[in-house]
Amino acid sequence: MSEAESTRELTMSRAMVSAIAHEMRENDEVFYMGEDVADYGGIFDSTQGLREEFGYDRVMDVPISETAYLGAAVGAAQVGMRPIAELMFVDFFGVAMDQIYNQMAKNTYMSGGTVSVPMVLTAAVGGTYNDAAQHSQTLYGTFAHIPGLKVVVPSTAYEAKGLMHNAIRDDDPVLYMFHKRLMGIGWMPAPEGPKTPVPETDYTIPFGKADVKREGDDVTVVTLGLHVHRALEAAETLDSDGVSAEVIDLRSLVPLDTDTIVESVEKTGNLVVVDEDYRSFGVTGEVVASVADEALGALERVERVAVPDVPIPYSRPLENEIIPSTEDIVSAIERAQ
Amino acid sequence: MFEDMVTARHYEERLQEEYLEGKQPAFDISAGPIPGELHLAAGHEAAAAGVCQHLTDDDVVTATHRPHHIAIAKGVDLKRMTAEIFGRETGLGKGKGGHMHLFDPEVNFACSGIIAEGCPPAVGAGLAAKKRNEDSVAVSYLGEGAIDQGAFLESLNFAALFDLPVVFVIEDNDWAISMPKERVTDVENGAKRADGFEMPGVRVDCDDAIEVYEVAGEAIGRARDRNGPTLIEVQVHRRMGHFMGDPESYRPEKDQEAAAERDSISRLEADLREAGVTGERIEEIRTTAHDRVEEAIAWAKEQPQPDPDSAHEDVFVNPPSGVTDSEPDVGTAGGDD
């Protein structure tokens, strides 16, 4: 196999699908179910082509009954299968939250570890396309807050594939939260960053290992998902002003790689945390608290950039005001160094 | 009734044109004057007009993510609704809700972007009417794709148990995004869902506004007379994709053609002519409807964009002390300078 064949550039959605298809070929117990995942191929292209290869039995379109099919995934996982269930928009979790947070997340613990729930729950997250408060939330914190769920957030095609391989093989329930804006969908143009070279062969990215996407000496910027790209853009902008920002992509929230963050803050002294989720009780607070726990002495400045506890508005100027932009990150880095 | 229907149809056609402006040739959801997704209801008009004709401003309607025809039939302020769809400051929700989340308390209209989630609030409105000894009724709309949803089934039970004045109206357009009805339920007649709750269930098997009017009149009469809820299913048709930009590659062409042929508006027009209404009068109604729509769209487009700072307002009607209702909280946190 030539180098060109073994590594090709993919969109994030193609990378996700490539991992799912690989795992489905390797293991008959893996199947996918969700709304509009078979004939449509996933509203966000998350299952393009899978039905053609694996048929309706293994790529199941289901009724709009999230409690039933997410709960069914829990049940199938508990008897040893490896379901992947797609919740079309993370905002819809409320109609099925019991199956997620009382069954999927807690059964392992309550059974004293005798029952495992090896399933993946995929969900589209994020705004930036003016779809208002019920279709634009990120909700990283909501799920990361619940014990028993592993939560991963890819930012590029490379991460999307490696994290998906790991998620399907993991014996615990994994919430795989992909940002619509990164998927490479025709009708929602992605920024440049998420389309990356992706090895053809399978590989895993371990959970709890953040990635330093850009090295720097002055400020540590910690973020995830879409905002990795905005943070990188902000860092590039400031580079010409002589500000050297290090950008850390968390890649997973549970487990959280505190070591990489602390190591960076010990170098830079300054911390900016950027999140597309609500500010209060969320990722930014958790990261700051974790660093304070372990390296309080190293902290000189702290900035949080997040959605200011406001439901995501519809109108374009209002949404732009609420969702952290590259300029917001630039300002925060300037304040922090 | 005819006027509501032709107003709704023209409105949908004009919104389609406006929506596509700036989004083509390569469809980009985040471009153009109308933000976000847009779900059009051309082909659903009979279900809206035939039911809402019996309602007053005191009666409550909860609609779905495809709400325009119902809003028009319920008497929602067309100009302010249009301004909301364009995301403007003078819109019903000051640009915060958008097309799936229209609220007009003047005529007791609301809608939700989450499938079946309008059912419980309609039950609540019915409960309030009963507790206050008022004769208002509540009507909750849902699509046939929503009839497997827990919120709907629980609402039927609750309304039946307490004999609440609620009418549930299923708009059966045969398609839940890419899923045809026969692939989501074995119950062809959705009105039969009522049987399990000892509630009357009636299906109107065609797009006949007059038949809908008669069936709805009986149901709403029963509700007003405190004889409890009714479930109605109306066969409508989907002339367009699930949302604007939906390529509908999953849908057989003959189904689209059949939907285009079944037109409740031509049908009602023929009935009116047969009943002696002159062509002149029909044209007059069409012209009035046309002018009203054009006026609303022209007005909406002249309205100002909202001030970005207003994004922070309205999270609470009574903001708790310590929460600034008009300024984002993005100040520096921590640090020792």
Order of secondary-structure elements of chain A: HEHEHEHEHHEHEHEEEEHEEHEHEHH
> Biggest sheet of chain B: strands, sense, closure?
6 strands, parallel
Main sheet specs of chain A: 7 strands, mixed
pLDDT averaged residue by residue of chain A = 95
* Poorly predicted regions of chain A: none
- What is the number of helical segments of chain A per DSSP (H or I, 4+ residues)? 13
Question: In what range is the share of β-strand residues of chain B?
Answer: 5-15%
Beta-strand proportion of chain A: 15-25%
Helix content of chain A: 25-40%
> What is the first-to-last residue Cα distance of chain B?
69 Å
Order of helices and strands of chain B: HHEHHEHEHEEEEHEHHH
Report the count of strand segments of chain B: 8
Backbone CA Rg of chain B: 21 Å
If you compute it from the alpha carbons, what radius of gyration of chain A comes out, rounded to the nearest whole angstrom?
A: 19 Å
Summarize the structure in words.
The complex is a heterodimer of chains A (337) and B (337). With 337 residues, chain A is of the alpha/beta class. Helix content of chain A is 38%, strand content 21%. Chain A is built from 13 helices and 14 strands. Chain A has helices at residues 3-6, 12-26, 50-58, 66-78, 97-104, 107-110, 140-144, 157-169, 226-239, 258-268, 283-295, 316-322, 326-336; strands spanning 7-10, 30-34, 59-61, 82-89, 120-125, 150-152, 174-179, 196-199, 211-214, 219-223, 245-249, 252-254, 270-278, 301-307. Chain A has a seven-stranded mixed β-sheet with strand order 3-2-4-5-7-6-12, with helices on both faces. Chain A has a five-stranded mixed β-sheet with strand order 9-11-10-13-14, sandwiched between helices. Chain B has 337 residues and is an alpha/beta fold. Helix content of chain B is 38%, strand content 10%. Chain B contains ten helices and eight strands. In chain B, the strands form two sheets. In chain B, strands 2-1-3-4-8-7 form a six-stranded parallel β-sheet, sandwiched between helices. A two-stranded antiparallel ribbon of chain B has the order 5-6. In chain B, helix 1 (2-20) crosses helix 10 (279-302), helix 4 (78-85) packs across helix 10 (279-302) and helix 5 (119-131) runs parallel beside helix 6. The longest helix of chain B has 24 residues, at 279-302. Chain B is globular, with a radius of gyration of 21 Å. The termini of chain B are far apart. Chains A and B meet through strand 14, helix 12 and helix 13 of A and loops of B.
